[in-house]
Structure formats: structure tokens, C-alpha cells
Design a protein that fits this description.
It is a single chain. This protein is mainly alpha-helical. It folds into 2 domains: 2-145, no CATH class; 151-187, no CATH class. The chain has 8 helices and 2 strands; from the N terminus they run αααααββααα. The chain has helices at residues 2-15, 21-35, 41-53, 58-101, 105-130, 146-149, 152-166, 172-186, and strands at residues 131-136, 139-144. The chain has a two-stranded antiparallel sheet. Strand 1 and strand 2 (139-144) form a beta hairpin.
Length: 187
């Protein structure tokens, strides 16, 4: 039963996510932490950090590590396959449609309409990793997750990394290494 749930969960995530791995993080978090409670929020945050540091797309790495935590090596392979299978099917279909309709404006308009949705999903993923969002009635209640950004030094590291990446265009690999060394020294 766990294999069926794992496959369907990641198949649907792969089916309904546009924009790559960063855009699917919020969907993965909702399913594996909130809905099924396969992972804790701290475990999920660790998996995201590891997924960013290892080679390959973050969404696939996240699915692989989550599958392993839930059902071992077989779960890892199943979650990875389930996540990429919809993309393969959709991509094959799009290639066929593109070759047939590439000169029409309708196709271009549809692709242009997806851009804001992808930006929103990426922003949601960032916010979910930083904040716990719970709904009481109709008013969202935000409280900082202690495991992720529990003290002021974490916020300083976040700010310095953002400034270095955004304004000074520092290489992301250098920032990851510097963040790891900083965390090792401070914590």
C-alpha cells in the first residue's frame, strides 16, 4: 500500500508541476509532511538542503531521498520514476503538438500564461521553508519554524548570502561551501 501511495503522490506532483524542481517543493512538502506525515518539517528541510548540494535536479533528488526515507531503495526508485514519468509523457506530447502547431499564436500565449504561475510556486516554496502557515478560520497565522531559522545568526547568514548572490553575483557553489563552513564553525 505504501508503494502505491508513494507512486501516486509523486506521479501527481510530477504531473501538476511546471517550472522545475524549485516550483514543486511546496507540493512535495504539502504531501510528504502535512498530508501523509512521512517526514517531519526538519527532515524535509534537511532533504531540501541535501538535494541542493547533490548533483541533479532538486525535485528529483528530493523525491529520491523522500522515497528512501519512506520505503528504502525500492521506494527511492519508485518515487523517482513516478516524478519523472509525467514529464516524459507530457514532453513527448508537447513535441508532437509543437511540431504541428508551432506557428500559431495560441501555443505561444499558453506558454506565456504559465510564467506567473511558476514564479508564484517558487515563491511559495521559499515561504513554506521559512514559515509554517496554518489556517485558523480565515486568518493565516505565521510563526517562524525554530528548526530552520531559530536564531538571529541564521538570519544574518541568510541576509549575507542573499546580498552576495543577488548584488555581487557570487558563485552559488562558493556560497554553499561558505555556508557549510560557517554553520560548522558557529553551530
Amino acid at each position: 500500500m505504501i508503494y502505491v501511495q508513494l507512486f501516486l503522490t509523486f506521479f501527481l506532483i510530477g504531473l501538476f508541476t511546471f517550472g522545475g524542481g524549485a516550483a514543486m517543493l511546496s507540493l512535495i512538502q504539502t504531501q510528504v509532511v502535512t498530508k501523509y506525515a512521512w517526514l517531519t518539517e526538519a527532515q524535509f528541510t534537511d532533504i531540501v538542503a541535501i538535494s541542493q548540494c547533490t548533483p541533479g535536479p532538486i525535485g528529483i533528488n528530493c523525491a529520491t531521498y523522500t522515497g528512501y526515507e519512506v520505503a528504502g531503495i525500492a521506494g527511492s526508485a519508485l518515487a523517482t520514476l513516478a516524478l519523472v514519468l509525467p514529464s516524459f509523457i507530457i514532453f513527448y506530447g508537447i513535441i508532437r503538438l509543437y511540431n504541428k502547431y508551432r506557428g500559431t499564436t495560441l501555443f505561444g500565449d499558453v506558454m506565456s500564461g504559465l510564467r506567473p504561475a511558476v514564479a508564484g510556486l517558487i515563491a511559495a516554496a521559499a515561504l513554506i521553508l521559512m514559515f509554517r502557515i496554518s489556517m485558523e478560520g480565515c486568518v493565516p497565522q505565521l510563526s517562524i519554524i525554530q528548526e530552520n531559522f531559530g536564531d538571529w545568526t541564521s538570519w544574518v547568514i541568510l541576509g549575507i548570502t542573499f546580498i552576495a548572490a543577488f548584488f555581487f553575483k557570487v558563485n552559488p557553489i562558493l556560497l554553499i561551501v561558505a555556508g557549510g563552513i560557517t554553520g560548522l564553525l558557529i553551530y
